[in-house]
Amino acid sequence: MMMCLIIIKRKGLYVNMGYRKKIKCENRKKGKSILAFPSDYVVLDIKTTGFDPCWDEIIEICCNRYINNNLDQIMTTFVNPDKPIPDHITQLTQITGQMVMESPKIKDVLPEINKFIGDSIVLGQCVYYDINFLHDAYIYEFGEGIYSIENDYIDLIRIAHRFLPDLPNYSLAMIAASIGVNISGIYRATFGCDMTHLSYQKCKEIANNNPNKEELLKNKYSKKTKACDIVRNSDQVNEFHPFYDATCVFTGKLEKMIRKKAMQIVVNIGGYCNDTITRETDYLILGDYDYCKTIIDGKSSKYKKAEDLKIKGQDIEIISESVFYDMIHEYQYPFVID
DNA sequence: TCTCCTCGAGATCT
DNA sequence: CTCGAGGAGA
User: Fold this and answer.
1) A256 CB-to-strand C distance under 7 Å
2) H-helix segments, chain A
3) What string of H, E and C letters represents the secondary structure of A276-305?
4) Measured CA to C1', what is the nucleotide nearest A299?
5) What is the mean pLDDT of chain A?
6) pLDDT confidence tier of residue A154, bands split at 50, 70 and 90
7) What residue has its CA nearest to the C1' of B2?
8) Beta carbon of A199 within 7 Å of strand C?
9) A173 in helix, strand or coil?
């Protein structure tokens, strides 16, 4: 009798899986990932039957609200996923099908979760994972526009990368262990929340003692190598080459080599490179800039400026990427495309 | 100089 | 998802 029930349930599962709605990631309306150390937040951890929000189900949720860094309210529950829990998940979490059988379904839990989280900042380890699960569950269970989770969130892993450099990896257990937070406990949502909170507070302390705190919290933008900083690194100057003593400017992304390398070749021939079109510019080399949304009419600002100067009588050549390579080859300039 | 774009590589979530 | 490299534009 028991066996029959299980089989029927499993049959039902396969049917349901076929109807599972796939929610496109790019359509998810979500908050921003922020780098800060607020004192009021909700820690979130979710355990599921697997990694994929499209096909896997939530089996445990824990939310802890902290006000002024102190625990204010706890909300934790098992969730009946209406499908079997894979063995490897049971091994990991020690959550069995038996344990969640009498638990509420996700549809009954979600409104409470939504209310509990409210508009708090959400803290967690790789929280976007948990947030994605919640987001998709809201939509799948209630449709668009009823519940949402557009809260800004703090990812412990991002903070750890900046304030705990050089860890062998950045799993929650590793982060916690490296700063003396107890990691011996059952792999469960409540424990995950506790570890996350304690690690976060430790990181906050460490950050406050770091003189570069503000700098480390900033969003990083990579430093560009300026064209004028490229210096000749070979003695293969060719004074008969058109690029010799000429100033070249690149626009768009080159297909066959990175811009820096192309600039290096020009400089090695005996030419100069610049980042902007000026009266000194002799060549503009066009790469591909189709991907750039800011370009509306198909021509970059450098292209337009070069055309403008050409009309005004400046001797400026606008050439394509392939012509650029031809010119290099024509004059027997050795280079390798890697 | 600063902000915002694309894209590829790499890591963590269960 | 994040970061870094590379790039455009104000």
Assistant:
1) no
2) 2-19, 87-93, 97-100, 106-117, 127-142, 156-163, 172-178, 189-208, 213-217, 259-269, 301-311, 321-330
3) CCCCCCCEEEECECCCCCCCCCCCCHHHHH
4) C8
5) 86
6) very high
7) A221
8) no
9) helix
Q: Is the CB of A24 under 7 A from strand C?
A: no
Q: Which of A111-115, A158-162, A255-259 has the lowest mean pLDDT?
A: A255-259
Q: In this predicted model, which residue has the larger pLDDT, A226 or A249?
A: A249
The gap between A117 CA and B14 C1' (Å) is 22
How far is C-alpha A105 from the chain's CA centre? 31
Q: What is the per-residue pLDDT for A206?
A: 96
Q: Which residue is nearest to nucleotide C1 (CA to C1')?
A: A128
Amino acid whose CA is nearest the C1' of B6:
A291
Q: What are A37's two structure tokens?
A: 């150390």
User: What is the CB neighbour count within 10 angstroms for residue A142?
Assistant: 14
pTM for the structure as a whole: 0.76
CA distance A172 to A183: 9
Give the C-alpha separation, A299 to A139, whole Å.
Answer: 41
